[in-house]
Design brief:
The complex is a heterodimer of chains A (516) and B (320).
Chain A (H helix, E strand, L loop, with lengths): L5 E12 L2 E12 L3 E5 L6 H8 L7 E6 L2 E3 L4 H6 L2 E4 L11 H6 L5 E4 L3 E4 L1 H15 L14 H14 L4 E5 L7 H16 L3 E6 L2 H7 L2 E6 L2 E7 L5 H9 L17 E11 L5 E11 L2 E6 L6 H9 L6 E6 L2 E2 L5 H7 L1 E4 L3 H5 L6 H5 L10 E2 L2 E2 L1 H15 L16 H13 L5 E5 L7 H17 L2 E6 L2 H7 L2 E6 L2 E7 L5 H8 L10
Parallel strand pairs in A: 3-10, 3-11, 6-9, 9-10, 15-22, 15-23, 18-21, 21-22
Antiparallel strand pairs in A: 1-2, 1-4, 4-5, 7-8, 11-12, 13-14, 13-16, 16-17, 19-20, 23-24
Chain B lengths: L1 H27 L7 H23 L5 H27 L4 H26 L8 E2 L26 H19 L1 H11 L1 H6 L4 H28 L1 E2 L7 H11 L4 H25 L6 H5 L1 H13 L19
Antiparallel strand pairs in B: 1-2
The chains are: A alpha/beta (516), B mainly alpha (320).
């Protein structure tokens, strides 16, 4: 080997998990100094393939050649020694350490006190990191605490961590999922800069525009198999999408003009204190009419969770009022709220949306189990549960291995979400809240959920859609509100706003906030 | 009277402080450690045994048994802490349950062994190793200063040793690479693992350190409060030190403050009894003072506590 010009060759990689072949005989070769994208839906096997390369999983079959030599990568540590670095989707940072401390962790510069007592030379670390951040144009304050940083800054720390360890090959796992459009632009610039500096980049993503904008080549995976490797310059996004999903996809959801009716939800001067003790939502007011989708855009952690929880009754309100169809529900207990007409699809499927240890029929009856149709004199009617379960599974196409009896914890994220949406839509409430409804789902599932959201509106419900995905907001919204630092300063008709304007509002630009 | 409060308060607070530092090491690495009580008892047992054995050969006039006992206690405490290590790290048991079991086991095991050894080796029926109280040191000169001078009067040698060890442990925790790795393991073990730190090895070391430091505390109490080793060593000081480290927000210096508050609360209670000439039956009322104080402090401190984020979580490499 050795004269192939490829820095990485993965040959015939197969990785099996119980009941699933995550990678089925995949072979890819990556040239030194290129940006190589891995494209595929969730569960296509992109992350598994990269985990194999990064030493987190051992492949069942196949070989890896690095710089022409056969290697067996046994651990992330080993991968790091070989010059491979990975920026994970969930950052691996110590929250109560500074940026510099995180970057040097595990390979600290040391000094000897009085000539023999070892200690970490934090001053040198801070200086080194400042220089490194200067060199690559990655703005990071070495002495800032991770817990005080936003996602984008944390990501830069992760990248510096790899560079500090002299990584030559950098793997990015869905790097743009949590960033604002401006932050994404900035990140893509950094990635281009790294490539021009001689680094080899592998980027895992399912966002086609990004691939189009930065990648040189792109491997498309579907259900664990490699479909094709394309030169990005010669391939249209539509074609990539078709290869990825295996069928034609329409990008924008088709929807008719909204026909707003009466005000359903009216939030007045609402202030909510977060668990951490600061005001997460500050004097927020807005209204949603029946037959209207009100989409709330914002970067993660600007008060969206608290706002949704306050309306659904999961956390208490410090001041202000929440009116539903003219009735004050500000202090109603949760069950009363559900009965008065609030359905909620929470962001956290696992802890709030479902009881993972319960089977599907139980979960589907979770909000109505006490009603006469499901129980008689406080004794649960199993048959009613199962009938209801089977009916919803059929109607909403919830796929599971064992029908009603499937333990929800074993289901895929997309089907878990379908189950929650089925349960909530079935309540047929005047208000329905979707919090990050498509998070972590693939294109097929996303377009289905968008259709359901629009169908809910057309039924006459008031829909509150809270999302971090700008595309989703632009696709679905009739009205767009932007939340920044707990305040909603901008509420406009969707047709009056461009993506860039929303992105700017999300970053707080124009309101004295900082931009990235 | 203030002098007595300071002298007795320090003699009580410093062992508690060193035990709490042990707890901080363990918990900052991510292992919940309720076993401090058992660790200090077991350490005092091995130390007491060593002291009695050495006393037989060199006689009771020498200072040798005193120092041997502390070394033996540290070794015993470290070895016994391996029970917690094996349960929590090797077998991934629930750390709270493991801690409680370690405590109960220590109580039962040491009382049983003390009786058997007294019968077998020293041919006497007793459940204690009689140690006597330690000598006390008074620093000439500065001990005459009013009020503050009391800090340097009637000092147990172990207090000096503890201050010394505490400084070293502070340095290890906040200045060395090991300390940095340890604190990282308690906050985000995945982050630590990703940069090549062996999480389980660091945690093992941390629990063993807590065993050694708790044993120093146990031995100190055996030489001061009870003047012997007996099952009476299990008075709950281990739990109190856990309370102290929680009030101290898992940092060493604030924990010292919490320990001093407990120490002075106890010694001033005792001083009040003596002053008022209360009958001895009221002693027990005073003994509960630190615990009542704990309850009150809990109300104020529970909101601010910043426990290590990964505390009590079993580290599973595969879980992401």
């Amino acid at each position: 080997m050795g004269n192939s010009g490829y820095i990485i060759e993965m040959k015939h990689i197969t990785k099996r998990f119980p009941g699933l072949v995550a990678n089925n005989d995949i072979s890819i070769s990556i040239r030194k100094g290129e940006i190589y994208a891995l494209l595929g839906e969730n569960g296509a096997g992109k992350s598994t393939l990269m985990s194999v390369l990064f030493g987190m999983y051992e492949p069942d079959e196949g070989e890896i050649y690095l710089r022409g030599e056969k290697v067996k990568i046994t651990s992330p540590r080993h991968a790091t020694q070989l010059g491979i670095g990975m920026v994970h989707q969930h950052f691996r940072l110590v929250s109560n350490y500074t940026a510099a401390e995180n970057i040097i962790l595990g390979s600290e510069p040391q000094n000897k006190l009085l000539g023999f007592i070892p200690h970490v030379d934090i001053r040198k670390a801070n200086k080194d990191i400042a220089e490194l951040s200067e060199k690559y144009g990655l703005r990071v304050d070495p002495e800032a605490l991770i817990s005080d940083m936003n996602v984008s800054a944390c990501q830069r720390v992760e990248i510096l961590k790899m560079l500090y360890r002299n990584a030559e090959i950098l793997i990015f796992d869905e790097p743009t999922a949590v960033l604002t459009p401006q932050e994404i632009e900035y990140l893509l610039d950094i990635i281009r800069g790294l490539r021009d500096g001689g680094h080899t980049i592998i980027i895992i993503t399912h966002k086609l525009e990004e691939i189009k904008s930065i990648a040189d080549r792109c491997a498309i995976l579907n259900r664990g198999k490699l479909i094709e490797v394309r030169d990005v310059a010669d391939t249209s996004t539509a074609e990539m999408a078709r290869l990825m999903v295996g069928r034609e996809v329409s990008f924008s959801s088709e929807k008719t003009e909204a026909v707003p009716g009466d005000v359903v939800l009216k939030v007045e001067d609402l202030t909510v204190r977060s668990e951490m003790g600061y005001d997460a939502v500050k004097n927020v007011s807005f209204e949603i009419h029946s037959g209207e989708i009100f989409a709330l855009a914002g970067v993660s952690g600007n008060g969206q969770n608290e706002l949704a929880d306050a309306i659904a009754g999961l956390c208490s309100v410090s001041s202000g009022r929440i009116m539903l169809n003219g009735n004050d529900i500000t202090h109603l207990p949760i069950r009363k709220r559900i009965e008065s007409g609030v359905a909620y699809i929470p962001e956290d499927r696992h802890n709030v949306g479902l009881v993972l240890a319960f089977d599907l029929s139980n979960n589907l009856a979770l909000k109505q189990y006490y009603k006469d149709i499901f129980s008689h004199r406080s004794v649960i009617d199993r048959k009613a549960f199962d009938d209801n379960g089977s009916r919803l599974i059929e109607k909403y196409d919830i796929r599971s291995s064992n029908g009603c009896k499937t333990i929800t914890g074993s289901m895929s994220g997309g089907n878990q979400q379908k189950a929650i949406i089925a349960r909530e839509i079935e309540l047929e409430t005047p208000l329905i809240i979707f919090m990050q409804p498509t998070r972590g789902l693939d294109i097929g599932a996303i377009s289905n959920i968008h259709k359901q959201i629009i169908a809910e509106r057309d039924r006459g419900a008031a829909v509150l859609l809270i999302s971090l995905e700008l595309d989703e907001i632009m696709d679905c919204a009739d009205t767009i509100g932007v939340i920044f630092d707990g305040r909603i300063e901008h509420i406009h008709k969707a047709s009056e706003l461009t993506v860039n304007e929303v992105g700017r509002f999300m970053a707080g630009v124009g309101d004295g906030g900082e931009s990235t | 009277m203030i002098d007595t409060i300071i002298i007795d308060g320090l003699a009580f607070a410093l062992p508690m402080f060193i035990m709490a530092i042990g707890g901080i090491f363990s918990e900052k690495s991510g292992i919940t450690n309720l076993a401090l009580e058992g660790l200090q008892g077991f350490g005092a047992f091995t130390g007491g045994l060593a002291a009695v054995l050495v006393m037989q050969t060199v006689g009771s006039g020498s200072q040798l048994p005193y120092y041997v006992s502390f070394i033996a206690a540290i070794i015993g405490g470290m070895l016994y802490s391996l029970v917690h290590v094996v349960m929590c790290i090797r077998f991934r048991a629930n750390q709270v349950i493991s801690g409680v079991v370690v405590n109960i086991l220590a109580m039962a095991l040491t009382s049983f062994l003390t009786k058997r050894i007294n019968e077998g080796v020293f041919s006497q029926t007793s459940n204690k190793f009689v140690l006597g109280t330690s000598v006390r040191i008074t620093v000439p000169g500065i001990s005459r200063i009013p009020v503050i001078g009391a800090v340097f009067r009637d000092v147990y040698p172990f207090e000096i040793m503890i201050v010394f060890i505490a400084v070293i442990m502070w340095y290890v925790m906040y200045r060395t690479p090991f300390g940095m790795h340890l604190r990282a393991c308690g906050d985000n073990p995945h982050a630590a693992d990703a940069v090549g730190i062996n999480v389980n090895r660091v945690r093992t070391a941390a629990v063993i350190i807590s065993g050694g430091l708790s044993a120093v505390a146990g031995m100190s109490y055996a030489y001061s409060i009870s003047a012997n080793f007996s099952p009476d060593i299990y008075l709950g000081f281990g739990y109190l030190s856990i309370a102290a480290l929680i009030f101290g927000n898992w940092s060493i210096l604030p924990t010292l403050g919490a320990c001093l508050i407990f120490g002075f609360a106890r010694s001033s209670g005792q001083a009040i009894i003596q002053q008022l000439g209360m009958p001895s039956t009221y002693n027990d009322i005073v003994r509960i003072l630190p615990y009542v104080l704990t309850l009150c402090l809990l109300i104020f401190f529970s909101k601010h506590n910043n426990s290590p984020r990964a505390l009590g979580e079993i580290y599973d490499k595969g879980k992401r």
